[in-house]
Each structure stands twice: as C-alpha cells, then as structure tokens.
Amino acid sequence: MIAEKSFEIPYTGRRGIIAALSKIIYKKDPMIVEIGMQRANSSDGDGNSTTVFGSFVSKYGGTLHSVDVNQYCINLCQSELIRLNAMTDNIHLHRDDGIAFLETFNEPIDLLYLDAWDYCGDESDLRRSEFNHLQAMKAAERNLADGALVLIDDIHNNETFVGKGAMVIPYLLNKNYMMRVNEYQMILEKPKDLEVVPGMVSFVCTTYRRYQCVERIIEQFLNQDYDNKELIIFNTDMQNPFVLSSELEGSRITVINNDLDYRTGRPYKNRGAICRDAIVHASGEYFMLADDDDVYLPWHIRQAVEKIVEVGKDAWKPKISMFANQNDVELVQNTMEASVIVKMDRIREIGFRTDITGYEGLSWYTKLRDEGQLNEHYENYVPSYCFNWSDPDEIAGHKQSGDINNPKNFENHKAASVDVSAKPLDRFGSAEIMPFYARYFEFLLKNRDKFPTDMWQRYVKQYIVTE
User: Fold this and answer.
1) Distance between CA 421 and CA 210 in Å, rounded?
2) Would you state the pLDDT for residue 420?
3) pTM of structure
4) Residue in 386, 387, 385, 343 with CA at minimum distance from that of residue 367
C-alpha cells in the first residue's frame, strides 16, 4: 500500500488527482506528464488539473509536461498559472498530439495523467477515445518509472471501466499494474520491474495476522539449506501491518502489507486473488507456497529444486507428505499444493482460482497434472513437508482447508486470526525451531525403512542423528 502525505495547493480538483499527488510527494523531483489540459478556469473547481499539477510543482518541486492540441487551452493554463504565481521554468505546456508527444518523450515518468480525447459523441467516437488512450499508454510505457502512477479520468463504471479507460485499464491489469483508487478517476501503480533470477525459489506466504506463525515461517525459511531463495510475506491486515526487524535486513525477505485487490481496488474477497497479487512481487524462477502454519524441514526447497530439474517437467510433487494433529503424525497422499514446486511462468500463466477460498491452487495443480507436467506418484525422495493441524487454537485460529464449502470461509478465517503483535517480525529462534522440528525428525526416523537410502543420505542424514 502506498503511503499518502497531505499538502497544500490552491484548488483541490477531482479526488483522483489529489490522491495521486499525495502519493508522489515523497519522490524527489517527480516527473508529471499530463495528456489533455484543463479547459476551464481553475476557480470552477472541476477540470482544473493543469493548475493543480502546476501549483504542486511550483510549491514542492518536480517537472510538469502538459500536452494539448488546442491553443486556447494552452493560453488558459498559462494565464491561470501566472495569476497564481505558479508558472516556473519546470512547467512546460506543449501544443501537440498526445500520442505523438509520448512517442518522442524520453524521460522517466512518475505520474501519467490520461484525460485527452473526449468520451462523447456516437459509438465510433467513443471507441476512438478508448483506443487513443490505450495508444497513449503504450507510447508512454517504456518511460514509466518503477512505482509510477497512471491516473485515468472519466471512468463511468468501476467494474467494466466504461469510459476513457475501457481499453487501457484491462491492458494494465493484464500487465500486473495494481489498482490503487477505483473511482471516477482511477489510479493504477506500475509494479517494479523484477528480473527472473535463474534457479531462485520464491517462497510465498500469504497471511492475515498470525504473528507467531509468520515468525516461524521466517525461521524455517532461513534454515533451508538451499541458498538461492526469497521469502514473500503478503499480509492483508492493514490494522496490524508487519515490519521486519533490522536484524533481517539483507535476508531476502520482502514484506507487503496490502488489503486491496490489485484488479479492483476493493477489499479482498478470497485467497486466490491474494495469491495472484503476491506473486507480482516475486522474482524467482520457481514458485513454492509457504502456508503460514505448516512445517518445512531444512531440505524442503533444495530437494524440490533438484527433483524438478531431474524430472524435466513444469512441476514436481512428492507422492505423500506428512499430516499432523495434536496427537499424531502420519503419511498421507493428497493434493497438498504446499508440497509442490512449480515453474513461476506457469503459475503466472494459469493463475489461481478466485471462486472458492481453499481451492485457489487447484487451478494450476489440476491443469499441470492433466497436461502430464505434474506426477502425483513420484516416490524417490524423503518427505520434507507437513500439513500441520497440531498448533493450539490461539495460534492456529481457523483452518480454511477444513471449511471449504462454507461461503463465509474467508471471513471466518480473518475473524479467528487473533495473534497480533506490535513488535517487528523477527526470527522464531533456533532454540524454538529445533524442538518444533523434533517431532517430525522422530517420525521420519521411525519410518526410515519407507524411504530410499540414497535420498536419506543426501537430504536427511545431516539433520537426524541415527547412531
């Protein structure tokens, strides 16, 4: 979620403009490009974008390039900015076609405002407006900075995007731009350009509160004996945002606090949408799910990477994994998506189910299985994952996987998640994680004859003393 900061300028204009400026005020010398100048006196209170942008640049710094084909608009805006004593050398008013201007513009853009071709007239006029705004966006795209905002005016329907954004908004959403404001003026944020790191595993944890579980995930991540990895913690509780301890700086752990769906700008309604948005921040070649309350033994990621390379498929899954309740640990065969490693490009291609919380991973799991890219019966390994139902209620809260057919499953999970803390996230600690692991080490040792000896030697021997 982008922080906002208040500021003072002579006129407020429409709310989207103010929201956008309140987000870029943190940037040093932000670059604002406006396609379509205001056409009325700023005191009218509506349609005064150029005056607002110019006043912002005059007072807080940065540069404004505003473009219009109508000389009347240029004269009006210049007159208004002079009247307000806001016309500076950093404000540039251009008479040009917006698309043509953007095709030759070569500076990084922090805020792009699209409000040019009027959305009125007959059907062909409306389509022309939609198309031209899309072409302007495409022309500007190469210059948008990481985290740049795209502000689009005159959106008449917040779900279908009828208006000037009818073509450009779906285009941006398909490129993983994040919806930040979903009103008459819409704001979308460009995600950071993340290069895929070969061999890297993105360990993705989506959570709502569950402070102790998340600290335990952090410790399990740091205890993995595979180095090329990152942990993405995506927390949807904005009342209790997570902050990493300074001790974890440089540990390849990224925390995202966000409760608004990147596609709609509205609060999340299911876990599938959360998972979809979480991987926007991932740079790994491979995806692995880190359910916040489950168990991942130290060889979990290394074994998965070596196995997916060995089988030469888009995914790898162990045939059976562990399941634990408060009384027992056993071996079970189930889909257990959190035991699977998948190529990230396939996850992005297929996506997550957003109809039923608890089924979000079945989209990619089922498709890959049916394509022959996921073998559910692979046996040459040692279990490293446990589906954990053994935590006390105050930690475990509500189990989404045990309440799938309940239409209130998603909200019930949030209501039952009460483990919060004002402290920064830190390591769970080796003094705590080794006793936590002990139960599973003991179970594997007891069942050692069920696992291949060479796999035991390769992955487990260094962790479980047998003599």
Assistant:
1) 9
2) 85
3) 0.83
4) 343
Q: In what order do the strands lie in the sheet with 321-325?
A: 295-296, 385-389, 321-325, 329-332
Domain boundary among the residues 189, 223, 243 is at 189
Structure tokens at 122: 């007959």
For residue 11, name the pLDDT band (cuts at 50, 70, 90): low
Write the DSSP string, 276-343: HHHGGG--EEEEEE--TTSEE-TTHHHHHHHHHHHHTSSEE-BS-EEEEESS-EEEE-S--GGG-EEE
1 band by pLDDT with thresholds 50, 70 and 90? very low
Residue that terminates a domain, selected from 139, 163, 189: 189
157 and 88 both lie in a single domain: yes
User: Are the CB atoms for 376 and 319 separated by under 8 Å?
Assistant: yes
Give the chain's domain count. 2
Neighbours of 423 (CB within 10 A): 10
DSSP string, 245-265: -GGGTTSSEEEEE--B-TTTS
CB distance 36 to 68 below 8 Å:
yes
> Do 253 and 330 belong together in one domain?
yes
Residue 394: pLDDT band with limits 50, 70, 90: confident
User: Would you tell me how many other CB atoms lie within 10 Å of the CB of residue 104?
Assistant: 8
The model's pLDDT over 129-172, given as tens digits with 9 standing for 90+, comes to 999 999 999 999 999 999 999 999 999 988 889 999 999 999 99
- Counting residues of the chain whose pLDDT is more than 90, the rounded percentage is 74
- 345: domain CATH number is 3.90.550.10
**Which range of residues forms the domain containing residue 82?**
15-189
Mean pLDDT of the chain: 91
Q: Do the Cβ atoms of 42 and 80 come closer than 8 Å?
A: yes
Distance (Å, whole) CA 50 – CA 53: 5
Note whether residue 9 is domain-resident: no
What residue type is 119 in one-letter code?
Answer: Y
User: Token pair for residue 247?
Assistant: 């001790």
The residues that bridge with 342 in the sheet, in sequence order, are 287, 315
pLDDT-derived band of residue 467, with 50, 70 and 90 as boundaries?
Answer: low
Check residue 12 and give its pLDDT.
52
Q: How many CA atoms lie within 13 A of 366 on its CB side?
A: 8
Residue 56: Cβ within 10 Å count? 26
